[in-house]
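Handout, section B. The chain below has 239 residues.
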Amino acid sequence: MRKVLPQRIFLTLLLALTGCRANNAASNSAPQPATQPAASSTAVPAAHTAPTQPTDARPILVCFGDSLTAGAGTDPGQSYPDYLQAALDRRHTHYRVDNQGISGNTTKDGLQRLPEVLALHPAVVLVEFGGNDGLRGLPIADTRANLAQIVATLQRAHIKVALAGITLPPDYGPDYIRQFDQTYTILAKKYRVPMIPFLLKDVYGVPGMMQPDRTHATAAGNQIVARNLLPLILPLLKK
């Protein structure tokens, strides 16, 4: 009697479990009503293509130099390349002036940055370097060699070149200053490029034209610089 009771309990549980599985199978196999996708109340907007920006196809005039070109100490739009662009626009000369001036650059820095300028495919490049070389007392021979390589590389790429010279304060000594100043004349003759001997002509030492550091032009001074550069640049531009 003690052995029969557990067996009955086991059989009862087995039948109950079997019935539950049958019911679940029947429930899962019964066809379910098709569900219709909910209609969207929001229309999908058509794809919008942004208008293509027109490219500037004007030939490029690069002003390639140091802080004097960068317009150090003045507000944006007050460098001499900015005023040169305005002067060309007034004359309806369709060139785009690209300011490639970086403060503190020496001729060696300019030589290292030359591939960036070449990548712009400019028509004309105004080269303005040397001031920081002189202020640091670097060897004149190195300055000349770097400038010569810059000019020669640009010319090999069939780019027209102009040179902008600079000079040094009198405390650097007459011999060093004389050799420094001759650098621009020597290179201009060697490579047959137009040259302005002193970028800050009619600006340096003129009240209101120089910043307190007596090194960089004010906005008014940069306008004069652009005015002086215009006769140097115009003959290089295609009509």
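Note. Residues 4-29 form the longest helix (26 residues). Compare this with the example in section A.
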